[in-house]
């Protein structure tokens, strides 16, 4: 198991370092295949990372297919839409072809959105019903409560390794979300985790060193079980890890 922590002095440099790693991993994947897959998370944290990816110019985005770890049950034009944020800060600036973008349709019912996303993923990878997709790079964040993707503390799907995606109700947010499930995250060829800020100090410590209980700290799924993960942290987030 390879778990590597990359420490940066501040959020800006953590975002830049994470972007640079993603570029390296995507180009390595493109050396072996005609196309590569990148799965991204939303929220507030990765905006600067997406800016760096879009500005870098070191990836043949016409050969990259973009997927999403999770999405809120909102329209793509809504201020909380993960797709909407990624559209503005990565897809449009990098000129990623529309046919390469596999978004989650948050504007339809959550269970219909899951059905559509599962169909898209299975069609893209040509999967049988029981097969798990293997993405080249999955980017993840970690919340102040220890959640990752839209797997929040107490969510029963945290223990699910058989299914690809599900609709979940985030009680703490009073919101339906659609999320990839642990089996997909742990099957990725590479995981890139970005976390910064003092509010991430405690959940990161719990992820790495707290009592093993992913139902209470879902980020333990990555810190304790992922085969290959790179963690990009600023000094505030990593204060208790060094």
Structure description:
With 242 residues, the chain is of the alpha/beta class. It has seven helices and nine strands, in the order E-H-E-H-E-E-H-H-E-E-E-H-E-H-H-E. The protein has helices spanning 11-32, 47-56, 82-94, 110-125, 182-187, 201-209, 220-225, and strands at 2-8, 36-40, 64-68, 70-72, 137-140, 165-170, 175-180, 190-195, 228-234. It has a six-stranded parallel β-sheet, covered by helices on one side. A hairpin with a 4-residue loop joins strand 6 and strand 7 (175-180). Helix 1 crosses helix 2 and helix 2 (47-56) packs parallel to helix 3.
Strand composition percent: 15-25%
- In the CATH hierarchy, what is the class? Alpha Beta
Helix content: 25-40%
Principal-axis shape equals globular
Count of distinct strands: 9
> Could you name the CATH topology?
Rossmann fold
**Count of runs of 4 or more consecutive helical residues:** 7
Count of structural domains: 1
Look at the helices and sheets and give the structural class. alpha/beta
Rg measurement, Å:
16 Å
The poorly predicted ranges are: none
End-to-end Cα distance, whole Å, is: 20 Å
Major beta-sheet overview:
6 strands, parallel
Give me the side-by-side strand order of the main sheet: 1-9-8-5-2-3
CATH architecture: 3-Layer(aba) Sandwich
Q: Give, in order, the helices and strands.
A: EHEHEEHHEEEHEHHE
Mean pLDDT, all residues: 96
């Amino acid at each position: 198991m390879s778990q590597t922590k990359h420490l940066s002095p501040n959020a800006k440099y953590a975002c830049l370092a994470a972007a640079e790693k993603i570029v390296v991993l995507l180009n390595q994947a493109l050396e072996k295949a005609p196309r590569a897959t990148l799965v991204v998370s939303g929220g507030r944290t990765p905006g600067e990372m997406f800016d760096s990816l879009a500005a870098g110019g070191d990836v043949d985005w016409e050969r990259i297919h973009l997927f999403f770890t999770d999405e809120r049950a909102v329209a793509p034009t809504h201020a909380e839409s993960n797709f909407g944020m990624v559209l503005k800060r990565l897809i449009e600036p990098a000129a990623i072809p529309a046919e390469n973008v596999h978004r989650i349709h948050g504007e339809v019912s959550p269970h219909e959105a899951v059905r559509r996303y599962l169909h898209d993923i299975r069609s893209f990878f040509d999967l049988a019903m029981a097969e798990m997709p293997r993405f080249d790079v999955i980017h993840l964040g970690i919340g102040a409560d220890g959640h990752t993707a839209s797997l929040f503390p107490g969510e029963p799907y945290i223990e699910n390794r058989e299914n690809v995606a599900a609709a979940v109700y985030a009680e703490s947010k009073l919101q339906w979300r659609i999320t990839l499930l642990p089996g997909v995250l742990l099957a990725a060829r590479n995981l890139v985790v970005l976390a910064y800020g003092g509010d991430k100090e405690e959940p990161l410590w719990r992820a790495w060193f707290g009592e093993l209980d992913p139902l209470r700290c879902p980020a333990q799924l990555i810190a304790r079980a992922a085969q290959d993960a790179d963690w990009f942290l600023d000094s505030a987030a990593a204060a208790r890890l060094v």
